[in-house]
Write a structure and sequence with these properties.
Its EC number is 2.7.13.3. Helices cover 47% and strands 15% of the residues. It is built from 25 helices and 24 strands. It has a six-stranded parallel sheet, sandwiched between helices. Helix 15 runs parallel beside helix 17 and helix 17 packs parallel to helix 19.
């Protein structure tokens, strides 16, 4: 059976009805006879959503104990055993409770898809991983549960579930989303019209990008070259001249006028690798484009207008921005220019904007790049002067008779002009035509092809030799100039490439994309294999060309050692390009090796850190755990001794010592185990609405009575937290504060709400901590000041911060005004996340 298909209902905001839409789709499929089951659906107590469950088969949930509560999770094994055609799995970004097979629900969905089961699921736009910072800046709430964007992008279908902010607020006001007592708070915080409009825009743009990717793939697969103006794409053509920055800014303003507008800057160089642009100016323009949110492309093409139009059509561009020509008026005799040619050939589906600038009509100011040694236009002028020039000169000289010497000098001048323009062969043609005309018109006997005076023969021979010599020098100089410019271009490319690679600024895909653009290829891939008989695998690939599985299937194959090759498709470049291609291939291998070495280094660092933790754990066990054990053993041995008659007071004191030692052991072992869990990444919090006034009092069990003053109002909003982890974190912080507080001074534990967050402050009047040590006290196995060894292994605050950050919160140390230390633990308020249906349980628990 093949892989199942995934359909995701993407909610533009909480409460728009994505679960309702998923259930409605399931009922439609069930009515058509499709085998649909409910693997997990969270109705949030909404009657209309619950009504849609009627008639749908539900796989029993799996109930897990966590943090003193029983929570329901999807029973993955039961769904796999049932093997339905379609499974409904709500809340794709959900974090599973500890004890589940996978940490996240989307990983459960991957197993269902791999088993050939189609899945209908839901996710809110606020839970996409890449949008976490953006959503937090809009709503003030950081989503603790996220799903990687790539998981959603891989879905076979993504359906946007949308609603206007006004309609969604009416639904909220009617009580269709939250309980009546929560409506006012929600409407004035998360569900403000601006928040909802911004979330809606994020969802629309994200879905539009995904649709655009599908459209580009469809156009590539079906070879569609016509422009489909589904969104504004602005292509700005750059020459590398100083006017480029003006054009980029103008194009960026055009792109901003339409929602979802895209800016693409393209610089076109000739296929011989020569460039007339300043590398520094191009680098500055690339940076400007990227700062404005666009992308920079380097394309190879001898016919610049055609290459520009090909790129624009391939990118499905709707507008092209070009600068006014820098040509002077007389230069238009050589052709209409790039702007006029592009405007003539672009067709009716593309607009061309010609932007004026300060450099217009001032001359190019840059050396001209040539594809051939002297360029096709220059060769044409050379042949014209070399063949027609002597004839025109003969007609002009027929009116006067300056003498043979002057005639020869005039014909020699024409030959030199032909050499300067067209090189060797036009000059030789000019010398041949000129010598024949000199012989026929000016050498006695006139109007015959014979020469009577030997001196005239010598003069004609010298004339031909001088013309050929000048032509050879000009042609050789042109070729040497071409070679020097080409080598300079190659050195600039390789220098830029090597610098980026050495600085680690270029990834493998970025490097392959530069290869593809530089040489005008359709695709570029780095292939490798383990041995001579092993199959090839693709280490990295870019471009839209046909996939290449073996180097011999590519248009260009550049081997890198025995078991790696750079494979390019699109065209066969000239032989002289293979040197640069070989350098690119070698650099690609270096980048791949560096990436793997970095991964190995990261693993080695993790192992080293693990070894450090284990060494510290052993040191803690060897000393800090031995002390309470020794005390317990001494007390027990004393009680069991038959030589001493213990009084009731002595016996009670020894028993109290045993109990204190056992409590210390329990505390130390608990911190050691918690630190180990944090280090290995096995702490998976079950985030739900939690009351601070229930958790904080339970955290006081390890400190003496009357050592803490509580100020935790019952009116505080619930927090998004794991009750068990929160209790342990608070206990460690409070015990640390009590340990360093002066005798008779109570530690104050106060809580307050602020802007969608709840802060818990633990205030002591102890000696405090210097600023430079405030972060160090949260490191494992750190004791501040002269704390004795028996005071613990230095893990309490490290565990507290680790648990707090695992719940999406923060724990920081600040000075207490008047002396002492204040620990501030900050968590997200559950009331700021109205999509969490468990928030309503707070009032029910308080009422009970």
């Amino acid at each position: 059976m093949g892989r199942g298909k995934l359909r995701i209902h993407l909610g533009a905001a909480p409460g728009v009805g994505k679960t309702y839409a998923m259930l409605a789709e399931a009922r439609r499929r069930a009515e058509r006879g499709t085998d649909c089951v409910v693997a997990f659906v969270e109705t949030h107590g909404r009657p209309r959503t619950e009504a849609l469950l009627t008639g749908l088969e539900q796989v029993p949930y799996r109930w897990l104990e966590h943090g003193g509560a029983t929570v329901a999770e999807m029973d993955l094994d039961a769904v796999l055993a049932r093997r339905p055609r379609v499974a409904l799995v709500d809340e794709l970004a959900h974090t599973n409770a500890p004890g589940s097979r996978n940490a996240k629900r989307w990983q459960d969905v991957e197993e269902l898809l791999a088993a050939g089961i189609d899945v209908l699921s839901t996710v809110g736009i606020q839970h996409l991983e890449s949008l976490g910072d953006t959503v937090e800046s809009i709503t003030g709430v950081r989503e603790a549960e996220t799903v990687p964007d790539e998981v959603v992008r891989r879905a076979d279908q993504v359906e946007l579930v949308d609603m206007t902010p006004e309609a969604l607020r009416r639904r909220m006001a009617h009580g269709n989303i939250h309980q009546p007592d929560q409506v006012d708070a929600a409407l004035s915080s998360y569900f403000r019209p601006g928040n909802l409009a911004a979330l809606r825009e994020l969802a629309l743009l994200w879905v539009a990008d995904r649709v655009d990717a599908h459209l580009q793939r469809y156009r590539s697969e079906h070879a569609v070259s016509a422009i489909w103006g589904s969104r504004e794409r602005i292509v700005v053509g750059l020459t590398g001249g100083p006017e480029g920055r003006t054009l980029i800014r103008r194009a960026a303003r055009l792109a901003e006028k339409g929602a979802g507008g895209q800016l693409l800057a393209v610089y076109i160089s000739r296929s011989d690798g020569l460039t007339s642009a300043s590398p520094g100016e191009l680098a500055a323009q690339r940076t400007l484009v990227e700062d404005l949110g666009g992308s920079f492309h380097h394309v190879v093409g001898d016919d610049i207008p055609a290459a520009l139009l090909d790129f624009a059509r391939g990118a499905n561009a709707t507008q092209i921005v070009l600068g006014s020509s820098r040509r002077r008026t007389w230069q238009y005799v050589f052709g209409p220019g790039v702007g006029a040619t592009v405007a003539r050939d672009c067709g009716p589906d593309m607009d061309v904007h010609i932007v004026t600038h300060e450099e217009a009509a001032k001359g190019r100011g840059l050396p001209v790049a040539r594809g051939a040694p002297l360029g096709r236009l220059r060769l044409a002028w050379g042949w014209t002067v070399g063949t027609a020039g002597p004839v025109v000169l003969a007609v002009l000289l027929s009116a006067v008779d300056p003498g043979l010497a002057i005639d020869m000098l005039m014909f020699l001048a024409v030959t030199v002009a032909a050499a300067l323009l067209g090189g060797l062969w036009p000059a030789l043609a000019s010398a041949a035509v000129g010598s024949l005309l000199l012989n026929f018109l000016y050498t006695p006997p006139l109007h015959t092809w014979s020469v009577s005076d030997p001196r005239n023969i010598v003069a004609i021979v010298v004339f031909v030799a001088v013309g050929a010599s000048v032509a050879s020098v000009v042609d050789l100089a042109a070729r040497r100039t071409q070679q020097a410019a080409r080598l300079r271009a190659e050195s600039e490319i390789l220098s830029f490439l090597a610098g980026n690679v050495l600085r680690g600024e270029t990834g493998l895909e970025d490097l392959l994309e530069r290869v593809r653009e530089t040489f005008g290829m359709e695709s570029a891939a780095l292939l490798e294999r383990a041995g001579d008989v092993e199959p090839w695998t693709c280490a990295g690939r870019v471009g839209r060309g046909r996939p290449v599985e073996r180097p011999e299937d590519a248009d260009v194959e550049v081997p890198v050692g025995d078991h790696m090759a750079l494979a390019l498709t699109g065209r066969v470049p000239p032989a002289e390009d293979r040197r640069v291609l070989a350098a690119f291939a070698a650099q690609a291998a270096v980048v791949l090796d560096r990436r793997r070495l970095r991964e190995q280094a990261d693993r080695a660092l993790a192992l080293a850190e693990g070894n450090r933790i284990r060494t510290a754990l052993l040191a803690a066990v060897s000393h800090d755990l031995r002390t309470p054990l020794a005390g317990i053993k001494a007390a027990v041995s004393s009680l069991r001794s038959e030589d001493v008659e213990w009084s009731d007071e002595d016996r009670a004191e020894l028993l109290e010592g045993i109990e204190d030692g056992a409590d210390r052991l329990d505390h130390l072992v608990g911190n050691l185990l918690d630190m180990s869990r944090l280090h290995t990444g096995t702490v998976t919090p079950l985030i739900r609405g939690t009351d601070l006034d229930e958790v904080v009092p339970r955290a006081l069990g390890g400190v003496p009575e009357d050592s803490v003053a509580l100020d935790v109002p019952e009116t505080l909003p619930m927090v998004d937290a794991d009750p068990g982890l929160l209790e342990r974190a608070m206990a460690n912080v409070i015990e640390n504060a009590v340990k360093y507080s002066p005798p008779g001074e109570k530690v104050l534990v106060a809580a307050s709400a602020l802007a969608g967050r709840v802060e818990v402050r633990v205030v002591d009047r102890g000696p405090g901590v210097p600023d430079e040590a405030k972060e160090r006290i949260f490191a494992p196995f750190q004791r501040h000041g002269d704390a004795p060894r028996g005071a613990g292994v230095g893990l309490g605050l490290a565990v507290a911060r680790g648990f707090t950050e695992a719940m999406g919160g923060t724990l920081n140390a600040d000075d207490t005004p008047g002396g002492g230390l204040t620990m501030t633990l900050t968590l997200h308020a559950a009331d700021a996340r109205p999509e969490d249906g468990r928030v309503a349980a707070r009032n029910e628990r308080r009422a009970s």
